[in-house]
Every structure is written in structure tokens, then in C-alpha cells.
């Protein structure tokens, strides 16, 4: 239920070409400048490392590669970089990083991107910003290729190197644990993500926590998270419909109906299923009148389908609310929809109860015509209706039919005597 509706928002998206390139290739005017440093990346260093520059020979070729890239010739830039035969360890690492960025920009060879990122990272020689960005990109690429264990190792290495507590990275870590089905390990990084976002909250770590608890059947813990989420994101409609469903899972029906009722009043219920769920909760909480009014309104508007199932629910709700006339009316509509004898029987019995005897007789006769069960009881109800209409001859004829059914014979005998005595007293020949 929950996973399908919400968790789809957490799928790792493809890396943005523009972001990768801006972070990696913004070049200063000097052809041999350190490109990542020129980008002005803000990092909190744990340990100062010596800044290095590529050698002049390699630098010239890197500059040519950047010029090709600037002319939107990414493939041409890649050819130039792949042709570089660097000898110094730092130059090799630097060129490998540039190659990985080009592969990432092209977006058609994830394994090559990862291969060159590892070549760039493993010597541990890149300047601080370059090394940090390479670690982060490697983690993202490992997530894309479903190497979740590798991604976890890389993200933790990035945090250890950079000294940063980054909310988005903690979300990715939690997501990796989820993908590995290590659901209990999702909670800690999700909590750290929440803390890292501070006063600019993000929904995704909460989604991960709820999903973790839900899939482990820890519904009470999931409810606690949802109660927090609905306070932080009160304008998000999905939480108003999710929380009542979780209250139902822990059998807190009062809170379920209260929350869904408030969601309705706030205008958050806009689907047929949501309206029907609320109507059902109203009925279960002994508020059938509210259930009937709600269904009637939204069947009339077209949001809830006017089919036999929904009309039956509406008829039952009005019956439970003791609005007999309305219940009879909807049972009549249901009977016409389905040509089902039992619905004509129900309509007729309610009409008789509401003292609409002439209409009751029509409905009950239709039930007989369609082959309703317990026909003796139906004939008795027809006899009673004729009796109250003071049509004693027809009442007598109906009660004789009722007497033929063993199930109603005893009661019918009593009514027969009553009909005969009343007709004699009123000088009516039967």
C-alpha cells in the first residue's frame, strides 16, 4: 500500500549533466590552473593536503580537451583525454578524473565512468575538492548501477574525507540500505538526514523511515513518524490520507475517522476510494447519517460511481440512520438497476414500515414476480398493506396465499381471523 504510493519518489535520478560539468570542469584563465579549485567548491577539510598542479605537457592537452567540450564536442574531448599518456601519478589521477566526468556527461557508459573514477581516487593524490567530488560522484554512479554495498562504502569514505554531514548523502545511504533489504539500518541515516536538513525539512528521510517500519510491520512506530510529518508538511495531501490508513492498521478507529474527516474538511479527499473509506469509517463509528450524506453528495457529483454496489451502500446507510423513506427510494433504484428480487423485497418492506402501503404492494408483487425466496412472508406483508388500506377482500386473498407456506402459516392464521372479523364489523363482504 504505502510503498507503491510514496516510495517511488525516492528512486535515484540520473545525474544532471550540467551539474557534473560545472562541478568538475569550470576552468580558470591560466591553461594549467587547478580546475576544481577554480570552481569554488565549498568543503570543510578534515586535513589540509598539499595543492598540486598537472605538468605543462598534460596541462596543454587538458586545455584542448576543455576547448572541445566548450564547443559541445564531448566525444572529441574524451578522445583527447584518452590519448594522454601521463607519467606522474598525480597527472594520471587528474586525467582519469576528467575522463570519468566526460563519460558521466555522455551518460552512455556507467561502467567506464566508475572505472576511471576509481583510478582517480585510489592513489589518494587529488586536491581536496577534486577528491571529494570524485568520491561523491562514484557513490552516485554505484547507486545507479545497483552496487549498493559499494555505494555505502564510498559515501562513508566521502563523509570521512570531507568531514561533512550532508542530508542528501544520508538519504542515499538510507536508500542503499533499503535496497539491500537491511531495513533496520535505514533508520539511523534517515534520522541523520533529518538533522542535517535542520529548519529546511525534506520529506524523503521521513518516507524512508515510514517504509522501513511499515515493511517490518512496526506500525506504531510508523504512526509516530507520520504524526510528525503531518505537522511539518501540513499542505501535503498524501500524508492526510496515509495517516488514517496507519491508524486502521493499529486499530485506532477513532483517530482514523477523526483524521480522515479533517482531511475531507481541508479538501484533501479527491478520489472515489477516499470518499468511500471515510463513509465506511463513519458507519463503523455509528454515524450512518454522515456516511449517507457524504455518499449521496458525491454520487450526485459524479466523483463516486453510481453503480449497484455504491447505491446498495447508500441505501444501507440511510436505513441504518433510520431515514426509511430515503432508504426505500435507493433500494428501489438498486432494484431497477439489478432486477434482483431481494432488492424489491427490501424496498417493499421499508415502504410498508413507512406506511406507504400502495407503493409497498407494487414493490412486493415485483419481488414475487422475480421469484423472491420466503414468498409466504411476502404475501403476509401484502395482506397487511391491503388491510391498512382497508381493502379487506384483497387482504384476505393475500393471507390465504401466505397460509400455503409452512413457514408463515401460523402467523397467517392469526391475521386471517383478524381480517375476517374486521371486514364483518365494517360490513365488507370478502
Task: Explain how this protein is built.
With 430 residues, the protein is mainly alpha-helical. Among the domains are: 12-150, no CATH class; 271-352, Serine Threonine Protein Phosphatase 5, Tetratricopeptide repeat; 374-430, no CATH class. Helix content is 71%, strand content 0%. α16 (272-284) runs antiparallel to α17 (288-301). The longest helix has 18 residues, at 89-106.
Q: Could you write a compact summary of the structure shown?
A:
The protein has 430 residues and is mainly alpha-helical. The protein has 24 helices and no strands. The protein has helices at 2-6, 17-25, 35-38, 56-70, 74-82, 89-106, 110-121, 128-144, 148-162, 167-179, 187-197, 204-215, 219-232, 237-249, 253-265, 272-284, 288-301, 308-320, 324-338, 341-353, 357-369, 375-388, 392-403, 409-425.
**How many separate helices?**
24
| Biggest sheet features | none
- Reading the helices and strands in chain order gives HHHHHHHHHHHHHHHHHHHHHHHH
Q: Average the pLDDT over all residues and give the rounded result.
A: 89
Q: Which geometry do the CA atoms define?
A: rod-shaped
Structural class: mainly alpha
Q: Report helical residue fraction.
A: over 70%
* Spans where pLDDT lies below 50 across 5 or more residues: 1-45
* First-to-last CA distance: 66 Å
Beta percentage is under 5%
Radius of gyration: 38 Å
What's the number of extended β-strand segments? 0
